[in-house]
Write a structure and sequence with these properties.
Chain lengths: ~180, ~180
């Protein structure tokens, strides 16, 4: 009787330990709720145009900023454009986006060879940048930066915006 | 010493039994309370949820979901498939909530709407790899295994008890004539 009682006690204790281990196992395997703010993502690609060769070639994005959080260092990338037209071109860039979600929140800086072409919000980039004159056959490297300023508190979390940099090309008088 | 080994063995066996039963119950029992268990068949939420995991889903109002939550919803393509992805953004447009969702391992996202008084599923927890075991059991080989393994265990148990009882003593009343 006593031995049987002890045996049942050991079995019960073992089963309880097993159930406890299962509980720990399930708690440890719980998917992360990810309550920390999700970063915003901005993918910027250049819309193709006949007068310009763009590297990396469209539709490959020139910048994929997928960890944008307020106050973090800017996501940066460089890309090249080459004037493949037979005359000098004035090139300006503006943006179109598939969503307005990050319009006033993300800042964009565009520069070429140390000259700032644009330094504004994503919304502000809908206006043309400063013109960049490019002789026929000339190639230039553009630097693109995107970031969320530290004073932005909310509204960016998890947003994903596809941005297209649209070149506006104007021929200038005379060849190259 | 032998007794100690026997006790330890008993504890280990019953710990194993308790563990397996608790894990199985954690996947099966929620159905009795209106929740739902389902096997994940794609790796779009890796590493948070992996292929072959069983997830337990609790129905909630869409207004109860927050950015960062993992939810289940009907595929917006109309196929009726259930998708498990993370909420990336929620915006309210009148009596509709516009969700943007994305699998952790995906680069694409989905946009879909649900009425404010509609229902979506919230993932409560997952049971790693249990779905693989369920799938194996569902296969023809698994069905055979389900019959053979218990039969073998029963046979081993019977044989062990026969060997332990030792040779049968002769009855003193059985005297040869």
């Amino acid at each position: 009787m006593n031995s049987r009682f002890n045996k049942n006690l050991v079995r019960t204790a073992g089963a309880l330990v097993g159930a406890g281990l299962a509980l720990i196992f399930l708690l440890a395997a719980r998917p992360d709720a990810n309550s920390s703010p999700l970063p915003a993502t901005v993918r910027i690609s250049v819309a193709p145009t006949g007068e310009l060769e763009v590297l990396p070639s469209p539709p490959r994005p020139v910048l994929v900023a997928n960890a944008l959080l307020p106050g973090r260092p800017p996501a940066a990338a460089t890309f090249q454009i080459r004037n493949q037209a037979g005359r000098t071109l004035a090139v300006a860039l503006s943006t179109t986006a598939d969503s307005t979600a990050l319009d006033g929140l993300v800042r964009i800086r565009l520069s070429a060879d140390g000259h700032r072409l644009a330094d504004t919000t994503l919304q502000g980039m809908q206006e043309r940048s400063v013109d960049l004159n490019l002789a026929s056959g000339a190639r230039t490297q553009l630097q693109l930066q995107a970031w969320i300023p530290g004073d932005v508190l909310t509204g960016y979390e998890g947003r994903l915006v596809e941005v297209s940099l649209v070149p506006a090309v104007q021929p200038l008088g005379g060849r190259g | 010493m032998t007794r100690l080994i026997a006790v330890v063995r008993l504890i280990v066996i019953w710990t194993g039994i308790g563990f397996v039963l608790a894990v199985l119950l954690s996947a099966a029992l929620p159905a009795a309370f209106g929740d739902r268990s389902m096997v994940v068949r794609s790796g779009s939420m890796t590493p948070a949820i992996r292929t072959g995991d069983v997830i337990v889903v609790h129905p909630i109002s869409p207004t109860g979901a927050e950015v960062g939550d993992i939810i289940t919803f009907q595929d917006p393509d109309g196929s009726g498939r259930l998708i498990v992805h993370r909420v990336r953004a929620i915006e309210q447009h009148g009596d509709q909530l516009a969700f943007t969702t994305q699998g952790d391992a995906n680069s694409s996202r989905e946009h879909w709407n649900v009425p404010v008084d509609g229902k979506i599923g919230s993932v409560l927890y997952r049971v790693p790899k249990l779905g693989l075991a369920v799938n194996r059991i569902s296969s023809p080989l698994g069905h055979i295994g389900l019959m053979i393994v218990p039969a073998l265990l029963l046979a081993v148990s019977l044989l062990t008890s026969i060997w332990r009882s030792g040779p049968r003593r002769e009855d003193p009343d059985d005297v040869a004539a």
